Amino acid sequence: MYKVLVADDEAEVIELVSLYLEKDGFEVLSASDGITALGIATTEKLDCAILDVMMPELNGFQLIKKIREKSNIPVIMLTARTSSSDKVLALDMGADDYVAKPFDPLELCARVKANIRRYTSASKEEVQALLKAGCFELDAQQCLLYKNKEQIEITSTEFRILQLFMTNPNRVFTKGQISAAGWGENTYVEDNSIMVCLSKIRSKLGDEGSIKNIRGLGYRMEISDGESEKTSGGGNE
Q1: Alpha helix (H) residue ranges in 44-190
Q2: Distance from CA of residue 216 to its chain's centroid?
Q3: Which residues have a Cβ under 8 Å from the Cβ of 72 and sit 6 or more positions away?
Q4: Residue among 37, 27, 88, 80 nearest 58 (CA)
Q5: 87 — phi, psi (to 5°)?
Q6: Measured between alpha carbons, how far is residue 155 from residues 158, 198, 200, 203, 211 in Å?
Q7: Hey, how many other C-beta atoms are within 10 angstroms of the C-beta on 178?
Q8: Which of 2, 27, 120, 212 could lock onto 47 through a cystine, CB 3.0 to 4.6 A?
């Protein structure tokens, strides 16, 4: 199920867009202001974002700039501002599409599907064969982990979880996302099993890296830069 953020200060627009997207099988997360939308974009693994321009706290142009600092997901601007200068500005800042209000919800859904299709297709083609983070290298073709050029034995589940973290550096993942990456989307995994696996990964990373618990949000991989204090085991439970 693809996850889409809909950010608009008009409740009627959110309700209409959500209705059509959910009917097509999408999971919809909504926000009525830019700050709330940014929080969702930062903590959730989104597949697409639909943003209004005129929103309180943080407008659509500012929001897309923030999103583009950490993600290249498709972003569709949905707005009543239809001047050429606004369209050019949005596209220059990283928008993938621009839909003017009033809009046809069926057309909007079609544009969401098309943009996600292009994004996922490009992502598959751009998967890196060798992921690097600090002194660690993950060989995605041979499923091997190296620390300072020395191989570290890991299981296939540990490999898939490390691949998730190293493909998305500094990103916070929920237990559900970690479970889906390590064991598969349709496999039920107890929290204890996830915690044991993360503990084993931490042990193998040693002082140079850690999977840190971001309380109330999820987990993030942190790599020591060799200069600051090395990550301790505290806060990892």
Answers
A1: 60-68, 84-92, 105-125, 156-167, 175-183
A2: 17
A3: 119
A4: 37
A5: -65, -45
A6: 5, 12, 10, 13, 16
A7: 21
A8: 2
Cα–Cα distance measured from residue 27 to residue 58, given in angstroms and rounded to the nearest whole number = 24
Place of tokens 């500012």: 62
Q: CA-to-CA distance for 37 and 17, rounded, in angstroms?
A: 16
Is residue 13 exposed (0-12), middle (13-18) or buried (19+ Cβ within 10 Å)?
Answer: buried
The answer to whether the CB of 4 falls within 8 A of the CB of 46 is yes
Q: Return the residue matching tokens 């996850």.
A: 3
Give the span between the Cα atoms of 194 and 158, in whole angstroms: 10
- Whether this prediction's pTM lies above 0.90 is answered by no
Q: What is the pLDDT of residues 63-81, one digit of tens each?
A: 999 998 888 889 999 989 8
- Per the CB < 8 A criterion, the answer to whether 76 and 96 are in contact is yes
The letter for the amino acid at 127 is V
Give pLDDT tens digits for 40-55.
999 999 999 999 999 9
Count of other CB atoms within 10 angstroms of residue 64: 23
Residue 185 confidence (pLDDT) above 80: no
- Confidence class of residue 237 from pLDDT cuts 50, 70 and 90? very low
**Contact residues for 96 (Cβ-Cβ < 8 A; gap 6+):** 74, 75, 76, 115
